[in-house]
C-alpha cells in the first residue's frame, strides 16, 4: 500500500497514549524549566500567570488545534499538506516549518549538549566547585561542539527508529520519568528554609500589571513558544494519526501538561533562589540580566545546591537529567519535521532522511557552539520571529482558505457545534491580530541581538 505521495506506506502511532506523550514531549522543553518561571517573576507573578493562561486558551489552543487538524486531514508532512489543502501558493509555509525545525535544532542541540554533559558529570559527582569556570570551559569551544555532535547522534538514532520504535517508545519512557523527577524536586524544595518568600515572589499578585503592554506581549509569546507552535512539529505528529479522536481534547491535554511542567518548575526553582540568597546574583530585584538563564541553570544554582553535600549532588543530578529528557523529546520532534518533509517530498528512506538532515543540522550548529551570540541571534530569529510568522499564516490558511474542510475534520471527534463555532471565531478574528502584535514587538529584540553579535 502506498501513501498519498507515492512513497512507502506512512508510519503511524502504535497507541493513543504514545501520540499524546510524544506531543507533550514536543511541547515541553528547556523553556518550560526556566523561562516561564523567570518571566513570570519579572512580569508580576500572578498577573503574568493569568495572562499566560488566557493566551494559551484563546491563542495557543486554537492554533494547536488547527495544526493537528491540518496534519491529520492531509496525512503528509507540512510542505505536502499545505500544498495539497491550500494549493501550490501555500507550499512556502510548509518550507518555513521545515526551515524552523532545522534552524531551531541547530542551536537547541548545543544547549541540550550542555545538559547532557552536566548530567553525566553530576551523576559521577564530578562537577567542580568553580561552577562559573567550569561552564566557561565546557559551554563554548570544542567541548561544546563535541557534546552538540553527540546529542545530535542520539537524536538521529531515535528518529531513524521510526514512529513506533523510535519516537513513541522514547516518549513513553522519558515523559513519565520527567514528570516524576519534577514532582519529586518540587516536593523537596518545600523542605528548604526561606522558601516561603520564593513562592511569594513567584506568585505574588501584582494584578495592576495586567495592562502592562510588555508583560502582555511576553505572556503571549511564552504561551505560543512553549506549546511548540508555528514550527510544524505538532502538524507532523498529527499526520501519523489514523483514528478520529477529539482533537480539541488532545489539544487541551497537551496544553495543560505543558503548563503543569512550567508551573512546577517554578515551584522548584524559586525556593532554591531564595534559600541560597541568589536574588541579587541573578538580577531578579531590578534590571533583567540577559545572561540569567545560562547563569542560573548552569552556574549559580548548581553551585548553590551542591553545597548541601550528598543530597545536593543527588538533586542537581536529577535536575539535569530532567533537563536532558525535556531537551531530547523536543529535539526529536524538530528533526522529525525535516525528516518527514524529505520522505514525503523526495521519497527518501527514513534512514537517509534522518542522517542527511541530522548531519546538516549538526554542521549548522557548530557556530552556535563556538559563539553564544550566534546562538542568541538564532533564537531571536528562528525561535521567535519566524515562529510567529508560521503561526500567523497557519491561522489565516485554516480560518479562511480551508475552513469547511477543517470544521468537518474537527466534527469527527467533537459533536458540539457551539465549540466549533468558538474555535472558528478565535482562529479567524483573534489569533491573527494577536500574533501580529507579538511579532512586531519581537523585532527590536532581534535587532538588539544582531547588533550584539557584530559589536555594533
Secondary-structure element series: HHHHHHHHHHHHHHHHHHHH
Number of helices: 20
State the separation between the terminal residues, measured CA to CA. 57 Å
The pLDDT mean sits at 87
Please state the structural category: mainly alpha
Q: Provide the low-confidence segments as ranges.
A: 1-7, 285-292
CATH architecture: Orthogonal Bundle
Overall strand count:
0
SSE topology sketch:
Blueprint: H1 16-27, H2 30-33, H3 35-42, H4 46-74, H5 78-86, H6 91-124, H7 131-138, H8 142-160, H9 162-189, H10 195-203, H11 213-226, H12 233-238, H13 247-275, H14 279-282, H15 292-306, H16 310-346, H17 350-370, H18 372-401, H19 403-411, H20 417-453
Structure in words:
With 456 residues, the protein is an all-alpha fold. It has one domain (16-453): Hydantoin permease, CATH 1.10.4160.10. 79% of the residues lie in helices and 0% in strands. It contains 20 helices and no strands. It has helices at 16-27, 30-33, 35-42, 46-74, 78-86, 91-124, 131-138, 142-160, 162-189, 195-203, 213-226, 233-238, 247-275, 279-282, 292-306, 310-346, 350-370, 372-401, 403-411, 417-453. Helix 4 (46-74) packs across helix 5 (78-86) and helix 8 (142-160) packs across helix 9 (162-189). It is globular. Mean pLDDT is 87; it is low at 1-7 and 285-292.
